[in-house]
Structure formats: C-alpha cells, structure tokens
Amino acid sequence: MNRVPDILLEWYQQQARTLPWRETKDPYAIWISEIILQQTRVNQGLDYYRRFMEAFPTVQELAAAPVEAVLKQWQGLGYYSRARNLHQAAQQVVSLYGGVLPGSSEELLKLKGVGPYTAAAVASIAFSERVVTVDGNVNRFISRLFSMAEDPLSARGRQEIVTLASAMAGQFSPGLFNQALMEFGALQCIPHPDCEICPLKNYCEAFRLDLVSELPVRKKKMKVRDRYFYYAVVRFQDQYWLRQRGAGDIWQGLYEFPLLETGSEIADFSELASALETLFSSRGSISLSSCSEVYVHVLTHQKIHAVFCVIQTSETPQFIDNNATPYSFSEISELPVSRLTDRYLHSGWINP
Ligand code: SF4
C-alpha cells in the first residue's frame, strides 16, 4: 500500500486534465470552480466558470452585483441556492474579511454555502493546508481501494475515508495530492471502471476480492416524488406575466409564469382551462389557445411534469397573488429562469 501515493501522483502528472482553475493559486477562482463543479460535470462547468469569472473577476465585483445578475450567469446549471449562497458569501468576505478570502478551512467554513468539502479544497489548493477533500469521486475510489464495508455517506464511513486518505497524503503537497485523488476518481475509478488498465490494480482490495461493482456500499435510495406543474402563459397585447419564486422550494429567486401545481395529472383540456383561470381574472374575454406537450424535468428527488398553456385576454389580467409582473418577450430573456422554463421559451410555443 505504501507505493500507492507515488503511483497516484505519477498517474496525475501524466493524465490530469488541463483546467483553468488548476493553473492558479487565486483562492477566489478556486472557490468559484469548486462551487460550480459540485453538481456539474467538468465539460459543462468549464464554460460557466469562464463566463462567471469574466462577469465577476473579483470577490468585490461579485459582492456588489445584483443577485439577479448572478442568477442569470448561473442559469441552466441548476441547484440555484449555490449561486445565491456564493453571492451572500462574497458579501461576507467583503464586510467581515476586508475583501480577502480567509486562509484556513475553519474560517472558510463560516462563509455561506461553504461546506467541509469546499473549505478543504480551497484551503489545501490555495493555502497548502493539510486537510483532505472528500467528494463522490474520492468516496468511490477510497471505498474500493480499501474495500470498505461502511457507506461513505454515513458519519462513520466519512470518518473512515478521511482517516485513510489523510494517511495516504502523508507529507505530499496537500493541494496536489487532493487533486490527484479527485481526478483519479473522476477519470479512472469511475462507476464502471476498466480495472485492467488501472495502475493501482495490484494494490486494490476491491479488485482482488472481485467487489468492484458492489462498492461503495450505498444506503437505500430516496423515493422520487412526482409533481405536476401547469403554467399559465397569460398574454395581453405583447406582454406576459411572470413571478419570482419564493423561499422554501426549488428555484428560489428565479422567474416563471404563474403556476398551478396539482397532486395528479389533468388530462382534460376544459378542466385545465377552468383550473388555470383560478389564478387570475380579467374584465374582458379569456381564451386558452394552446397547451404545450408535457415537459418532464428531473431533479434529485423530484420528477416534474410541466405543461405551459397560452391564454389570451382582451383586458389587463389581475393575478390573485398580486405577485406577477408584465414583461415583453425580449425582457423575459433577460430574467433568470429555470432550465425548464428556458426550454419552453426556446421551443417556439410562444410566437411573439
Ligand atoms: S483497480 Fe479498479 S476499482 Fe481498484 S482503484 Fe483501480 S479502477 Fe478503481
């Protein structure tokens, strides 16, 4: 086993991908990249990272930006609380730390949205702190290398991973070693790996015991909840009404058409028309002209079935919750919206 760190670092020097955040020691840039990559594949995250750094090159510029501008840059990446937290954390850095990111994982953990993984990644890469980073890729790799019987997501499993990885890291450069661990999990020890070409196969317990496909141990998956969204795309002259989503559910702070959520599917067109008309009133005529196909949008523990219905009114509509604001079609494209709404807007269902 004591050859493993050397082999791992040798592999990393030869195989690591060239990525912009690996060519800097700027803690701000590393922090942004780590937050983007939390739930996003590197290929997709790369473009977002470049655009985000172009829009907000410093923590001061991020802190001073309106949250809508930050959400707009994030549009399509999902898990929007990451963007809101980044924005708030940037304001914390400016107001509490004089605009300089704190240099230890303990202090970094005090920033909004910064958990143990991100704090460890920034502190080890930018400040060479001896702390290991544990993400899903590291969990998978270490679980297999040592044939762990614990679920790495449990408290005991996590502790075991930290202990094993710390022992392996030894006196190597912490940032380099952490990146090698994560990259090995991301590129070589993938969910269905080719162990025959693995430089660590002679040291891997899971390979020796033929347990690669069984590890890491996982608890039962959470059940996926089906949700049924019916959007009223209300049009009067050249305006459409949208509202901003509130706290306590998905997509907080993003804009969408007024929504009716139901516990089951509404298949009948006239029933749907009546249900949508409960969202608003108008002194003039109201006509539901068309409804989209069903858009299926899958989130971590939710499956959303969404239908968008275009409704024409002959007078200004009044919305029941008073929360909807009129926008022209071109103004809508400036608003931060969920990927679901974005798919609809680009589908051509609305003809401005
Ligand atoms: S031998 Fe297979 S399971 Fe073991 S570390 Fe290599 S890729 Fe992962």
Descriptive notes:
- The chain is of the alpha+beta class.
- It has 2 domains: 211 residues, Orthogonal Bundle (Endonuclease III, domain 1); 121 residues, Nucleoside Triphosphate Pyrophosphohydrolase (Alpha-Beta Complex).
- Helix content is 41%, strand content 15%.
- The strands form 2 sheets. Strands 1, 2, 3, 4, 6, 7, 8 and 10 form an 8-stranded mixed β-sheet that branches. The protein has a two-stranded antiparallel sheet with strand order 5-9.
- A hairpin with a 2-residue loop joins strand 1 and strand 2.
- 33% of the residues are buried.
- The model has no long low-confidence stretch (mean pLDDT 92).
- The structure holds iron/sulfur cluster (SF4).
- The site of iron/sulfur cluster has 14 residues, from helix 9 and helix 12.
Summarize the structure.
The chain is of the alpha+beta class. It has helices spanning 4-15, 27-37, 42-55, 59-64, 67-74, 81-97, 105-108, 116-127, 136-145, 155-169, 174-187, 205-208, 269-276, 329-332, 339-345; strands at residues 225-236, 239-244, 255-256, 259-262, 280-281, 286-291, 295-298, 302-313, 318-319, 325-328.
Indicate the topology.
Layout: H1 4-15, H2 27-37, H3 42-55, H4 59-64, H5 67-74, H6 81-97, H7 105-108, H8 116-127, H9 136-145, H10 155-169, H11 174-187, H12 205-208, E1 225-236, E2 239-244, E3 255-256, E4 259-262, H13 269-276, E5 280-281, E6 286-291, E7 295-298, E8 302-313, E9 318-319, E10 325-328, H14 329-332, H15 339-345
Parallel strand pairs: 1-8
Antiparallel strand pairs: 1-2, 1-4, 2-3, 2-10, 5-9, 6-8, 7-8
The chain binds iron/sulfur cluster.
